[in-house]
Amino acid sequence: MLSAFLPPNFDPRRPLALIAGRGRYPLLTAEAIRRAGVPLRLIALEEETMPELTATFPAGERVEINVGQLGKMLGALRQFGAGYALMAGQVKPKRLFHGLTPDLKAAQILFSLKRRNAETIFGAIANEIEKIGITLLDARSFIDDQLADAGPMVGKKLPVDREYLEHGIHIAREIARLDIGQGCVVRKGTVLAVEAFEGTDAMLRRAGTFKTDETLFVKTVKAGQDYRFDVPVFGLRTLETMREAGLSAAALEAGKVIVLEKPAVLSQAKAWGISLYGF
Q1: DSSP 147
Q2: If you classify domain 147-278 with CATH, what class do you get?
């Protein structure tokens, strides 16, 4: 089986277009897709996609677009003869709201949205992709081995009481339900910080300004999460930020949070004495 997250009728002979945002997540996804033998094409986003990834594609199998060029994206998907598309990697949130230069197609979509946030914008883009007969895949596809596992991943057990873990999970799920963010930091039943527009790293740094013994970072997803474009990621940068902030434990929702470059993350967490637990 190529991946547990692929649709039952997935045809590995049809080209798959990777719509690549920031960071190493798209690079690792591309490597996994190639190992699976699926024909791969690239839609790179200006000032977002890593040049190292773009360079691995021949000129005829890639296109670079501005974040707001939805019409050009749809045209490229048709030109590639893609049967599938997969979004991987973040776009800086402020790029969606400041300095965006939408083409006519994107402007029509933005004008139609009553609420403009990352979820509604990417949801509308996803719908436009599927309108032209292309299946937008679950963004966890092909990287099953990079997901958080249930139970202790680093450390024999989580170094906080179970009731404090449950409290953290409850708070994280509530802020996710309210569409505020997907993570929080708690300590002995007290909420130190919640994730919002500024992102995970800024939240962790904020939490680090308080007393940090027995603190817990919790990362979750919302009910009804659209995994086509919104998958939470925990990677080496987040781990480094935890260490700098003096936070020594994280609980990640198993099977739903991506632990990017997982072997390296687990090894480094062990070396730094940071406990990782999947719930």
Answers
A1: B
A2: alpha beta
pLDDT, one tens digit per residue, over 31-90 is 999 999 999 999 999 989 999 999 999 999 999 998 888 899 999 999 999 999 999 998
The conformation of residue 138, written as its DSSP 8-state character, comes to P
147-278 and 16-136 share a CATH fold: no
Q: Which residues contact 261 (CB under 8 A, 6 or more apart)?
A: 24, 28, 146, 235, 236
Residue 164's nearest CA partner among 141, 186, 185 is: 186
Given this structure, which CATH class describes domain 16-136?
Answer: alpha beta
What residues are paired with 72 via a beta bridge? none
Query: Pairing state of beta strands 183-187 and 151-154?
Result: unpaired
Query: 3-class DSSP state for residue 161?
Result: coil
Paired tokens of 63: 């296109």
Per-residue pLDDT tens digits for 135-167: 999 999 999 999 999 999 999 889 999 999 999
Rounded to whole angstroms, what are the CA distances from 3 to 6, 130, 179?
A: 6, 21, 29
pTM, entire model: 0.89
Residue found by looking up tokens 């013994």 in the block: 213
CB within 8 Å of 225: residues ≥ 6 apart: 231, 256
Per-domain boundaries in the chain: 16-136, 147-278
Phi, psi of 216 (to 5 degrees): -140, 125
Alpha-carbon distance of 210 to 99, in angstroms, equals: 35
Q: Distance from CA of residue 155 to its chain's centroid?
A: 25
